[in-house]
Amino acid sequence: MLFNKDRLLCRPVDPSAVRSCRNKLDLTQSQMADVFGVSIDMWQRKEMEHDLKSSSPCSIAEYNLVLLMANEHPFLTLRSKTDNSQFCFVNEEPAKPLIKSMVLNIRNYLGLNQSEFWELFGLSLKNGQKKESSAKTQVSCYFAEYNLIMLMANEHPFIELTTK
């Protein structure tokens, strides 16, 4: 597995860097919200300065995915698995057993417990467990979370991580 803890940027997220990456990708806030599977209001809060009460900074995982998308990550890059040069993200709700299996494999590989893993996504243990739950009434993963989990597990159908 190419992904490891040392290649994950865990520094504080800079909203201006997030905005700069989005601009480099030539995407509007609405388009970026669609890619990440969140509302435009939620995305706009991710680009706000952190000292504002209404801000909602990107999680560590979201920040790493934004950097990867804009080819600004210092250690990793995305590569298409097809001849198509466009990166294709999965924009459908993931199957919960699949998420649970991938998360367990990634956690074991990285040597992280459940709480440490979901902290990367800015979630409490309780909320992370809800995303792993097989119950139909529980919370599902956002598109960005699902795509990053698949990339981390080397299970993404369209793109893969490579070292720079």
Record the strand order, biggest sheet.
1-2
Radius of gyration: 15 Å
Q: Into how many domains do the coordinates divide?
A: 2
Q: How many beta-strand runs? A: 2
Biggest sheet, open or closed, and with what strands and sense? 2 strands, antiparallel
Ends: how far apart?
15 Å
In DSSP terms, counting alpha (H) and pi (I) runs of 4 or more, how many helices? 8
| Overall pLDDT level | 79
Helicity level = 40-55%
Describe the structure.
The protein has 164 residues and is mainly alpha-helical. The protein has two domains: 5-78; 96-157. 45% of the residues lie in helices and 6% in strands. It has a two-stranded antiparallel sheet. The protein is globular. It starts with 14 loop residues before the first helix and ends with a strand.
Key descriptive features of the protein:
mainly alpha, globular, 164 residues
Write a brief caption for the model.
With 164 residues, the protein is mainly alpha-helical. The chain has eight helices and two strands; from the N terminus they run ααααβααααβ.
Walk me through the topology.
Layout: H1 15-24, H2 29-36, H3 40-46, H4 60-69, E1 76-80, H5 96-110, H6 114-119, H7 125-132, H8 143-152, E2 159-163
Antiparallel strand pairs: 1-2
Helix pairs in contact: 2-3, 5-8
